[in-house]
Amino acid sequence: MNEMAKINWKDTRLIYIMVFGIIYISSLAPIALPVPIVQWSKDFYTTINEGVTVDFNDPPREFGGVEEGTRVFVLNSGETSKLWGDMSEAVTTVWKDLRARGANILLWSSSPDNAATLNKYLLPLMYGINPQNHPDYGVKFVNLGYVAGGNQLLEQWKDDLIAITPYDAYGNSLADMPMMSNFNELKVEADLMIGLDARGLETIYVVRYNTPVLEMGGTDSASYLALSYTAGYFKGMIMGQRGGAEYEILSGIAGKARSYLQNTFTISTIMVIIMIVANVQYVLKKKEEN
Amino acid sequence: MPYLNTFIFFAAYSVLYKNNPMYRLAQSLVVGVGAGYLLVANINAFNRGVIMNTFVNGNINWAMLLPWILGLAYLCIFIPRLINVYRAVSILTLTVGMGVVLPYGPALFWTVSVGYAQNALNFLSEGLSVSTLGQLLTAVCYALALSYFFFTDYAAKPTTAFRKLGRVVLLVYTAMTITTTALGKINLVQWKVLDTLQGVPATWWIPALMFIVMLIDNFYPLRNLIGKGSEVSS
Amino acid sequence: MGQQGDSIADQILANLPTVVGLIGMFIIASLYWTDPGWDFAVTLRNSVTLSLPWPVGIVSVLLIRRHVRNIMRSESTLPYDVVIVGSAAVMVVLGLVSGPGDATLAALYANVNIIGTMSVISAIAISILSPMIRIYRAKTWTMAFLIGLSILAFMTYSPLGQMIHPIIPQLGDFVQIYISGASDSAFWISTYIGAIALITRMILLKEKLKPN
Predict the structure, then answer these.
(1) What does the DSSP 8-state code read for residue A131?
(2) Dist. CA C163–CA A64, nearest whole Å
(3) What 3-state class would DSSP assign to A54?
(4) Which of A3, A103, B144, B186 has the fewest other C-beta atoms within 10 Å?
(5) Span A216-240, mean pLDDT?
(6) Side-chain half-sphere of A191: how many Cα atoms within 13 Å?
């Protein structure tokens, strides 16, 4: 009895245990739940599937969707390493879709941790343990790896990528790779850019060169990225595991994202119930005191 | 490595229970491994960007001279007498960085403001709909939130009403962001939990074991074991 | 700041790093509007970018040096300092001996640093949910508003809202896109305006460009 008396039900550790309990139960027995598909996710898929027109400058740029040989520049330049657990399924499914459509994919990572994250979790899944030895390497996919410089680098690459970055992540000369023969002057030779939580593309590329840009981020990236989506600079965006589930439904590519929704559902339901009950109690108590 | 991966993830979490040696060990490993790797990655980045291009086909590439000079000048941070050289190169780097970013401010302000203003009037040409009403609301909220930051000092009083409404707009943003942050970060935990359950080899027993240890410690502090042990030895 | 009565030349000389910095800044900034740009400015910008690995790498060296000093002084954190310096040394040796592409190097980084950082970041969720449970009470109208919006966000970003009524996620998305988005724009643009205000103060020589 004395030992039991030690349990303090206001102890915040009980909250941690509850959250972990929910996550474990949701992970052990995931069930399919309805997924509302938001407009920005639909726009993301439509841009890849059908294309889009970007007309911030004259003449407008017509992008016809991703097909064989479309040059897609993927910028792994946001908080990917810290958000990977929230972005994993969306990035994986979109990458699978790009490959299935025959896109030429150029990947750049803005920091060593972002590069290492994709090296561990994405590239082995797509191209094996040594991506540089995959038959697609240099023809359909090139990995620039970590290159320092951020937006400064994007400013320079718009005119000539190989001049400033002559070698890929594995030390191979970019000039010798067939895929890079027409993928150098990014302002005109990148047909589509997909930012992984990337920021600053609007002012560097979109408004100046009509580059179509799509964005992928974590669940909490929505507010920031909405700025550029509502203003029309980003032609679509998908956020977090929910975005991954939406893309799985839209593209028909099977993935794991939908199982995350049960966890989100359970946590959200419990939080909503707790907040409502606690506040009703609070209001009733206050009325009694008055 | 999967065992190490799971241990680090949940050992870092154990700080939520209390500051403990498991957490401190994980923290130290994260800092040490990160610092070492960052150094190696940047040596590699300089190698690929500059060193490999310094001599091309036996000829010196003069364009690489300045990056070499700048890089070596940074080393003056370790030589107190030459600290001004380090300061000069820092100012140069800062200058270039700010020079690149400087145009983005006016460019973004102009493009976003013009975009919002144009879209706000879409309801006149396209009629009233959720989308056109939303675009009108966006323009209004944008102006209100800007007024909160923009009008200070002597301009604060005449704009009180706008700034108060601006605060409401920012409150909406805060509330939505706090919740989406929580949900986004919870996904990270579930991602790792799924990994412990479905990964090969399964490592779910590591956090389970840690939980049992913490549970025992809660009722019978494990520090007592060390204390009693030292008493015996003394 | 110059003394009262100083000539403009004296003031400029006293603030030479700031003046030179400002001129350099505007030269680099001019590249945004010029295509392909002035050769000197392009060379300077490219060279600075190429030299960036140095300052980033030096940050690591300074961090490791701090812990080496702790070891030499036998601080109370000695075992942890040894772990930090030891693990950093292992990584550097592995990188220098086997190359940056070494599998063990990459595996150690991914399985220690990346996952550890992700763990700390994910703990933010618990730090948010905990006060939501304990102290989110409608004590004021502002707080009531905050709670209402939080409930809306929970319903929008999980299937819960859709299961109750499709209008709920639609409303949540509307708030997120049109109000939060606008607010976020204002926040970022204000930051840029602040930066421009700072530069304006530098032009007036009221702020100095001086690293520590």
Answers:
(1) G
(2) 36
(3) strand
(4) A3
(5) 83
(6) 20
CA distance B17 to chain C (A): 12
In a domain, A144, yes or no: yes
The answer to whether the Cβ–Cβ distance between B197 and A3 falls below 8 Å is: no
List of chains touching A (3+ CB pairs within 8 A): B, C
Average pLDDT for C92-104:
86
Read off the pLDDT band of A30 (50, 70, 90): low
ipTM above 0.85 for this complex = no
pLDDT above 70: percentage of residues in chain B: 94
C-beta neighbour count of C22 within 10 angstroms? 19
Same domain for A242 and A268, yes or no, is no
Specify whether A138 is located in the same domain as A218: yes
Residues 84-123 (B) with a CB less than 8 A from some CB of A: 96-97, 100-101, 103-104, 107-108, 111-112, 115-116, 119
For every residue of A224-247, DSSP letters joined together read HHHHHHHTTSEEEEEEHHHHHHHH
State the residue range of the domain holding A267: 258-290
Say whether both A213 and A274 belong to one domain: no
pLDDT of residue A57: 84
Give the number of beta-carbon pairs within 8 Å between A and C: 160
Do residue A164 and residue A74 come from a single domain? yes
Q: Do B192 and C48 touch (CB under 8 A)?
A: no
Tens digits of residue pLDDT in A134-180: 999 999 999 999 888 787 788 889 888 998 888 999 889 999 999 99
pLDDT value at residue B230 = 44
Beta carbons of C109 and B34 less than 8 Å apart? yes
Same domain, C212 and C150: yes
Q: How many CB atoms lie within 10 A of CB A205?
A: 25
Mutation to test the A interface, candidates C31, C157, C168, C175, most A Cβ within 10 Å: C157
Question: Residues near C65 by Cβ (< 8 Å), separated by ≥ 6?
Answer: none
CA distance B223 to chain C (A): 18
Residues A54-106 have pLDDT tens digits of 988 888 999 999 999 999 999 998 888 888 988 999 999 999 999 999 999 99
Q: What pLDDT, on a 0 to 100 scale, did the predictor assign at position B234? A: 32
The Cα–Cα gap between C13 and B224 comes to 67
DSSP B58: T
In a domain, A284, yes or no: yes
* Residue A25 within a domain: no
Q: Is residue C179 part of a domain?
A: yes
pLDDT band at residue C162, thresholds of 50, 70 and 90?
A: confident
**C144 and C192 part of one domain:** yes
Among the ranges given (B153-167, B177-191, C197-211), the one the predictor scored with the smallest mean pLDDT:
C197-211
Domain of residue C65 covers: 57-123
Q: Which of C71, C108, C115 has the most B C-beta neighbours within 10 Å, making it the best mutation to test the interface with B? A: C115
Distance CA C19, CA C13 (A): 9
At A108, the pLDDT band (50, 70, 90 cuts) reads: very high
Chain B residues with CB inside 8 Å of C146's CB?
A: 171, 174-175
Contacts of A120 in chain C (CB under 8 A): 106-107, 110, 114
Q: What is the CATH number of the domain that holds A113?
A: 3.40.50
Predicted confidence at residue B228, as pLDDT, reads 52
Do A241 and A270 fall into the same domain? no
Is position A8 within any domain? no
Q: Is B33 on the interface with C (CB under 8 A)?
A: yes
The answer to whether residues C210 and C141 belong to one domain is yes
Q: Are residues C141 and C80 in the same domain?
A: no
Same structural domain for residues C3 and C33?
yes
Domain count, chain A: 2
Q: Could you say which of B115, B187, B219 has the minimum Cβ distance to residue A6?
A: B219
Asked if C118 lies within 8 A of B9 by C-beta distance, the reply is yes
Q: Quick check: B111 and A233 CB within 8 A?
A: yes
| Helical (H) or strand (E) element with A105 | strand A104-109
